[in-house]
Amino acid sequence: MSNYLPKLNQYCNITDTIAKNFYSNNKLTIELKKNNTLVTEADKEIELTLRKNITKDFPDAQIIGEEFNDKLSNSNLKFYIDPIDGTENFIRKIPTFATLISIEYNKVITAAMISNPITKERWYAEINQGAYHNQDKIKVSTINKLSNSLAFHGSLYGSECPNNEKILKILKHTKRQRGFGDFLSHTLVAQGSGELSIDFNLKPWDQAPLGIIITEAGGKITDWEGNKFTPHSQSVIATNKLLHKESLQILNTN
Prior knowledge:
Blueprint: H1 5-23, E1 30-32, E2 38-40, H2 41-57, E3 62-65, E4 77-85, H3 87-91, E5 98-105, E6 108-116, E7 121-126, E8 131-133, E9 136-138, E10 150-153, H4 165-171, E11 176-178, H5 182-190, E12 196-200, H6 204-207, H7 210-216, E13 220-222, E14 235-239, H8 244-251
Parallel strand pairs: 3-4, 10-11, 10-12
Antiparallel strand pairs: 1-2, 4-5, 5-6, 6-7, 7-8, 8-9, 12-14, 13-14
């Protein structure tokens, strides 16, 4: 591990404990935010705890989180925090949620960790050091035909997906499809459990870990037009690299 990954591991040990305690609480306080999404007291406590620890360890670092105002400075070091990615799952006692922490230095994501406290899984990566699922180094699959692929996606209808035409267009070329959504779609591609994941309208804290984990596992990730992926991209498609060109052609053909 680098100098950053042990610290991310330490942070996730703390947040896992908080999340598990709230997950077992049947009297969870839930609020509706202005953007019509839900937030719980667990989201807030996890993010506040992370902000406190990050500021203690890296006093000048910038912090971009989901639930509170950005902490900005002149520092080249920036942390992205999603305290609970999959809050709806968390509320409904579906054990597919995670805390996402990413570190950006000089505008490049250099380390990231995704931690699910219920399944006891962590996905993490450091630039030029590979990607891991718990203690195992992971690699994308070697399937080279879209017609043989397994694809992952999020919501297909409703307020989270006002326009699903492009998503359905690519999915119909794949062999099987699974609607996991959130972080899990992309980590499954990184670990070789599927070949393609597609999503859009994510926030910087949602997607900051995705690029480094996918690419360090040997995959490819861009926006739907094939542009370089960043935490601020408006759409995301991740593949095992072998299927990326064909997938983009399908997405962008009328």
